[in-house]
Amino acid sequence: MDESIEVAALAYVKEFFAGDATGHDVWHTVRVYRTALAIGATEPAADRRLVGIATLLHDVDDRKLGGDANRLPNATGFLQAHGATAAEVAAVTGIIRQVSFKGRDSTVPDTLEGRIVQDADRLDAIGAIGIARAFAYGGAHGRPLWDPEERPRENMTAAEYCARQGDTIAHFHEKLLLLKGMMNTAEGKRLAEARDAYLREFLQEFIAEWQGIR
Ligand code: ADP
Ligand code: NI
Fold first, then answer.
1. CA–CA distance from 201 to each of 17, 184, 196, 206 (Å)?
2. Ligand 1: distance of its center to the CA of 106 in Å?
3. For 64-109, what is each residue's pLDDT tens digit?
4. What pTM was estimated for this model as a whole?
5. Which of 40, 73, 93, 95 has the fewest C-beta atoms under 10 angstroms from its C-beta?
6. Which stretches within the chain are classed as H helix?
7. Ligand 1 neighbours by CB, cut-off 6 Å
């Protein structure tokens, strides 16, 4: 597995995510890839190639896109078709399995590379991009912007989190506002600061406008 596999992986994800309108388009993967490499550059012990390829493939078996997040057939098939060894397939799929947010059952990846990919993925869920993605996801799933009579549910299990069909503002409380405190790396924490502040400012403004204060 050399760096040319990343070129092939980029072409693969472009094709794979074509037409997605749930916030999981190929540009999500491209942004997370850039961020993961930037965080990786601050972590000298990280295996750059592993960070790169795991990031490029991290959503191709996503449950929300109808994938099988346990067996990861798409990532595994891609890697095998491009000459990855069994150990490399295990390393990459091991990372992908640990990255996703699942309420209180989220895991801290046991490898540095996994922690980097997870931070980069989570950074794309906050800040201006995160706000845009949340409302895109909500719209694609027919959810209201906000239901002021609904209370956000904190501390959900993985099953509860996955079954939840709340309004998009509830999702801010149930996931997005928690992410800053869940960053693994020093650079991830640093990058999360401004993005988290932007989220909070947006929420204040949204609610003020809703109530007719502005
Ligand atoms: P990621 O690609 O970061 O692992 P997810 O697969 O959990 O994230 O979700 C993709 C995007 O959709 C993220 O920006 C996330 O915040 C958003 N999203 C997921 N669930 C909801 C929801 N119930 N309401 C609004 N946005 C959501
Ligand atoms: Ni992702």
1. 31, 24, 9, 9
2. 14
3. 778 888 899 999 999 999 999 999 999 999 999 999 888 888 899 9
4. 0.94
5. 73
6. 4-16, 26-41, 48-57, 73-81, 86-99, 112-123, 127-140, 158-163, 168-174, 186-210
7. 23-24, 59, 62, 64, 100-101, 121, 124-125, 130, 133-134, 137-138, 168, 171, 175-176
